[in-house]
Design goal:
This protein has 293 residues and is of the alpha/beta class. 43% of the residues lie in helices and 17% in strands. The strands form two sheets. Strands 2-1-3-4-8-9 form a six-stranded parallel beta sheet, sandwiched between helices. The chain has a three-stranded antiparallel beta sheet with strand order 5-6-7, with no helix packed on it.
Length: 293
Amino acid sequence: MGSAPTRRRVLATGAAVAGSAALLGPLGSTASAASASASASASASASAAEQTTAGAKPTVVLVHGGFADGSGWNEVIQRLQRAGYPTIAPANPLRGLTTDVPYTAGVLRSIEGPVVLVGHSYGGAVITNAAAGIPNVKALVYIAAFVPDQGEQLGVLIGKYPGSIIQAATRAVPYANPDGSTGTDLYLRADGFRAAFAADLPVAMTRLMQATQRPFSASAFTDITTAAAWRTIPSWGLVAGEDKAIPPALERFFYRRAGARAVVEVPGASHVPMISHPGIAARLIQDAAEATG
């Protein structure tokens, strides 16, 4: 485009310079052709990028709960990755909502593109708070999880329906905070871990899980929920039919109140259905991704 005005100016100087203009003509044509080719290439690249973005799958973020770590999602992660979903399972600090919520929100803000956010157990309370006000979170998936509303405490909700034995199976261990105050960590005892947490898994596996468990602060049961992302973000839920940590009736109540688009119930499943039934958990997450994509 820049060569055409140049030729017009050269031709305007008269016949004596016409020869020069003629010499510049082929060069101008070559430059124009190169420019057009580059423009076409850029347009094609932009179009391809738009198509890639349009066809990209959302990132799945998996948030574990108390007494656990990201490895509990291993079998689910493998299935999601095989299906083409970028997947991460960040380490939930387990220091209570006042710490875990901003930490998780920071992880979410670091991700470009749409997110399907999944929470297990206490992780459900974390994602309920953390997703509020983050526009790229398109779906919430609750796996045997708490789904609190604003102003609620998990320690109160756990007693809404009978059936939980998790509190009786815990032991409290005090720890010192940097400011000199004392906090309390909760552990599941060796003699109560399997029954309360993972009764449908092999004994050898639950022994390993109990030995490597990550405790979480007792403040998680008294911290107050400050936001309820499920009021604006569509949700899905999985009920563990033989859950002895969060009663199945409480899970059903949570998902019904949140207006979950779909609820899957797994008869016989313990509190860790993402380990004992990873295919069902992964399928529910994919359903949420497909429905909101």
